[in-house]
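Hey, can you fold this one?
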Amino acid sequence: QVRLVESGGGLVHTGDSLRLSCAASGFRFHLYSTGWYRQAPGLERELIACISYRDRKVYYHNAVKGRFTITRDNAKNMVYLQMDSLRPEDTATYYCAADGRARCERPDYWGQGTQVTVSS
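Sure. Predicted structure:
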């Protein structure tokens, strides 16, 4: 059974940091690119960070570039999102996803999401 389970969300203040974790199981993790998406109320889900399984290249949405860092540990089947200098506009539900392509294009698997709320 494929599972992606996020953890680490919460309520923080502007300027604080959070580290999201995603535990993967039930598929060949090392052959999937992994990404973090987020969805704020009334908005579409957007890709904010991706790390390729093939060449470890990373992608960041402009809105988080320089503040967020995505990493993965294939030995532990884990993917992380370090979020620094958080802003109220980062408030959203954050989803971990796995994509069998070299880039995060159309995820094959999704986590259930974890809420991040940043107060001003």
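The chain has a mean pLDDT of 97. Let me know if you want another pass with a different chain boundary.
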